[in-house]
Amino acid sequence: SKLTDPSAVVESMLAMQGQDLPGVLYSIGLRLHGGVRSSVVAAFNSGQLVRSWPLRGTLHVMTGADLGSVLNLTAARLVRGAAARHRRLGINDDDVAACAVAARSALARTASAGRAGMTRRELYDVFASIGQATTGQRGIHILWLLALESVLVQGPLDGQNQLFVDYQQWLGPRERCDSDDVVALAPLALRYFTSHGPATERDFAWWISLPLTQVRGAIKLLGEALRPVEYSGDTYWLAAEAAVTKPSQRGLLALPGFDEYLLGYAQRSAALAPEHAQRTVPGNNGVFRPTVVAAGRVIGVWAKPATAAAPAHVEPFVEFTFAHQDSFATGMAKYQKFIAG
Question: pTM of the predicted model, to two decimals?
Answer without folding.
Answer: 0.92
